[in-house]
Design brief:
By secondary structure, the chain is of the alpha/beta class. 47% of the residues lie in helices and 11% in strands. The radius of gyration is 18 Å and the shape is globular.
Length: 227
């Protein structure tokens, strides 16, 4: 069955986990409180703060309480859509000022270029917001990589460890799931994608084991035609 599209995770797959935890998260933790205070009365950001209240089930939370909720979620790595969106807005400032450059592994850059040239449609699926995804590739150490991608998916499509999320993405791409190759470093995500009918390939950059899936150490070892 020939692969038509490649759907890739970011953290631990195209990009270093360390970049997320040592650069992006600390930057957001430092700058998010002032950003929230500044945008509390502005649209559409004020709607995002209301979304935080809704997700936290604290409808009366004031701005300082909203900030406390967001910081608590960050500490627990909670995949709240409102948090991810606000983080993306804060990171955008850092990317635009040059304080942040998106990390992408060189082997991923090379492979993504080659795959696009060979006619594969490339897509991203990450727990980070679509905005954050576009930023890491748009302001990457290798330049603007966004022209390589045909689309982006985040938790608005569902959580990454749920089979239904991948079924929704396949439907959105108007492709049978078996024509899509999903790349990730997390076995539970690979399991969910596989259960939906997608082909899978695990990235085990530290020579780990991703049971039940083909696993490679880097993108140079992936041949989409072999799936």
């Amino acid at each position: 069955m020939s692969i038509k599209a490649i759907l890739t995770d970011i953290e631990g797959t195209t990009s270093s986990i360390a970049f997320v935890y040592e650069v992006l998260f600390p930057y957001a933790k430092l700058h998010l409180p002032d950003y929230v205070r500044a945008c509390a009365e502005q649209e559409p950001q004020a709607q995002l703060l209301q979304a935080v209240r809704d997700e936290a089930q604290e409808p009366q939370a004031d701005v300082e309480r909203v900030i406390a909720i967001l910081l608590q979620w960050m500490e627990g790595d909670v995949k709240a859509t409102s948090l991810k969106t606000l983080q993306g807005l804060v990171w955008q400032q850092g990317y635009e000022t040059g304080e942040i450059k998106g990390h992408v592994y060189p082997d991923a850059v090379t492979a993504l270029h080659a795959w696009q040239q060979h006619g594969y449609a490339l897509y991203v699926y990450s727990s980070g917001s679509v905005q954050a995804q576009k930023l890491i590739f748009g302001y990457s150490v290798a330049g603007d990589l966004t022209p390589l991608f045909s689309g982006y998916f985040d938790t608005t499509s569902g959580h990454k460890r749920e089979q239904e999320s991948y079924a929704r993405i396949a439907q959105a791409l108007d492709l049978p799931a078996e024509h899509i190759l999903f790349l990730s470093d997390v076995v539970e995500e690979l399991d969910a994608a596989q259960a939906s009918g997608m082909r899978t390939c695990g990235l085990a950059r530290n020579q780990g084991v991703l049971a039940g899936h083909v696993a490679v150490e880097n993108f140079a070892q992936i041949d989409p035609a072999a799936f």
